[in-house]
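Record type: monomer structure entry
Structure origin: computed from sequence
Chain ID: A
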Amino acid sequence: MTQTDIDRPRIHPTAIVEPRVSVGARTAIWDGVHLRGPSSIGHDCIVGEKTYIAYGVTVGNYVKINAHVYVCAGVTIEDRVFIGAGAIFTNDRYPRAFADGHEGLASSEPGDDMPTTVVRAGASIGAGALIGPAVEIGSYAMVGMGAVVLRAVPPHGLVYGTPAQLHGHVCICGTPLIGVDGVAARQDRARCARCGRRYRLPEGPTGLAVSLRD
């Protein structure tokens, strides 16, 4: 096997990869996946079976997308993101099957006013989560399984529930942060009991968790 063979993406013969889809080196596209074009999948990714990725989607590098995930148009997924099985993204605030004032079905093509969603680097989305339109999920955030996310999630934020609410913060390694006194981190400074990283947390429900030591 040559170096070129090693670097070539692995695409299952049952996957549908439309024209103008870019798939990076060493990325694995599993059975029954449908990739609409134009779209872009980075290198060293996994796209699990029966997943659908719409046109206009950009997926970064080292991304793991599990089975039966629906990624609609208008979504950008940055590097090192994890998306659990059955997660669904949406991009229409006022969906109708019909075109108001006209015969037939409404167009499925994205318009100029289509909301966009961004999943920042290192974030994780749990199995079965539902991501509403025009939502930004911050870097290294953690979305719990089955959560219904209707508003922005701050960097390192831990959210779950229906609708999803902020319940704390997580480390880069994924472990929930604790305070300097050993209890749940809700004060200015926090640390990770697993890897030892320390953070300065925001005072309010949103904001940036600043790593004091990588």
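Annotation 1: The CA atoms of residues 102 and 197 lie 58 Å apart.
Annotation 2: The two ends are 38 Å apart (CA to CA).
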